[in-house]
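Practice set, problem 2.
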Amino acid sequence: MHIFVLGTGMIGTTVVTELAKYAGVKTITAVDINQASIDKCLAIANDPQVIGKVAALATEADIAEVLKGADLAIGCLPHSLSLPAIKAAISSKCHLVDLVGSHFPEKLALHEQAQQAGVLIVPGCGVAPGITNFLAAQGIELLDEAQEAMLACGGIPRYPDPPLGYQVVYRLESLLGLYTKPATIIRNGKIMELAPLSDLVEMTFSEPVGLCETVITDAHSTAFMLQGKVENLVERTVRYPGHWDKMRVLSELGFLDETPVAIEDTVISPKLFAQKVLIPKMSGHSIEDITVLRVEVSGIKHGVSTKHTWEMIDLYDHERKITSMAKTTAIPALLISQWITTKKITETGVIPIEGLIVQERFHPFLTELSQLGIEIEYKEETFVEKE
């Protein structure tokens, strides 16, 4: 089995390192445009079955050329390259597990092409989108009538620094995309969009996290996959108090706009300028981070109001020496990859994780997540109305 990992940044390197531990994987090719990034990845993986490959990854044709001879690929590329990677995988007849969940309708439109090619494309297969998605789907399956689904997740610093109380745990490009993209939700059974940074709500987690704030962000594939199964669904992103108000001010002042502006002889988008300015403000003095997750699904079961809740508070992994965000994003992708290669998953087409890890596959997948260090707590509550 020959697996390609596209992109050797923080999360791609974690995928390579963890994937090398599995029996049945003959060769892992780590692909990036940057030799230094590949060298660092190979040094961390320190495994003879991992080889590096410098290659262009800018277009669908570039990626298709890379994937010749690959059985399966794991996409750890920027959002802008996700759709080209999916098209390239289909044309190369290569299974693809992709971390990026954006532009889902365009990806779903390729479902029949993927089926004809005999491959499975799994978009949005990290922590959020990813783990949150299949937890919500399972919660809905457990109810006779699903009324509300709330998916909350956030990567936050263990030791927050002012002024934003946040440190970058993945690409800043992707982060600002999350902050500026309209949020797809389900309301009263219908898919609709809300303005970015909508509906600030407090949320409290146990120590060492405490009080946080959330806003509604894009629900990615869940809005489309779970429509008709739940009346209302939103996804929320978690930050420490004060962060969202400051980012909203930047947005309102136009610093997150993409329309270029002229500054003397230079033309630049405010968003790109903001990225350059914000990077040092979001670096933090410590690499330690926390990933928090909470999924609540409520409705009716046997005539009784019932709520299912899953929660995760995951800390920086000192044993692996990787961030929590890297671990919780990479491990679901490599587990799905393993399940595809071992024929535990045999479907073809474009199917996000919430279409795969439900019902009889749900608990075995959670068990394997736990074995790899991702612990998710669960509780069921029932509410009897007083007469």
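Problem 2, part (b): a different protein.
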Amino acid sequence: MKEVSHKRHIAKAITWRCIGTLDTIFLSWFITGDPFMGLQIGLAEVLTKMLLYYLHERLWIRINLGKQAISQWRHILKTISWRLVGTLDTMLLAWIISGNPVVGLKVGMVEVVTKMLLYYLHERAWYKMDYGIKDRNTKENILTKNSISPQEYTVSQEQRSALKGHKPLVVWFSGLSGSGKSTLANLVEKKLFEKGIHTYSLDGDNIRTGLNKNIGFTSEERSENIRRIAEVTKLFIDSGTVVIAAFITPLKADRETLKQIVGEHNFVGVFVNTSLEECERRDVKDLYKKARSGEIKNFTGIDAPYEKPVDFDITINTESCPTEEAVERILVVVERRIISRK
């Protein structure tokens, strides 16, 4: 859980105030023709706007709109709300200092355009910096790590497996959205279940509506999504279950982490190698269409990478391999693994 500290808001207030004040000074100078008056108006707003900006930041941290994935829309709305507050402050200050309400109105109106652009760029720049962002429970985590002692269970994985009559395994389907991962995964589980194998399915959309509903789609968040799923899978492995998992899993590093957590000896990788063109043609949810139009950001295959697995046990090309044949190929490998290890 990330926490945005007060010092980040203070630092943002200072950097923005430097930019905003310089803009106000030059605009006031240009409109009044008096550099001294421009300097007076610019310096006067330093104190008022520092306070107003800080309060504006603290208010927005409590507003959830666009917060989960930190979209550009959130930055745009923050830009608009701050501009309304800032422009009113500038207009009043320019009026008071110049004694002329027309000057106040002119300075306020002109700076709407310049500061809207500058503030938006300022927001985007700060979004790329981690300063003042930390794990909320950092201190608690340190204390917890020092006090954790894993429980030793009386019943072992081997005993659970013996009761079920087969060894545990994770069959991990990776591929682009629309490649056919879930379809194959469901059919494989059905066949195994009919043969008396204890199975459980994990699927990307289902996980994101529950356990991982608070995770977005940035590169870091995708990695955390896979890490959590791997830990859940590890628990199922310990229970002696055959896990059928269907996730895009686009990055090699995340797939390596996954194998380390569940154990390579418990892992069968299935690469559902369907071309991007075919996935877009299928696109029953219009996800690719939305990604192409910019409505969806960080979409794998469009503006986020998919690193094809080169070390998976099975590769299925759904454009040339019939579904029934693909299922049988997977079952041969899976059954050999869960039986030969008895």
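Answer key, part (b): The radius of gyration is 28 Å. Residues 2-134 form one domain.
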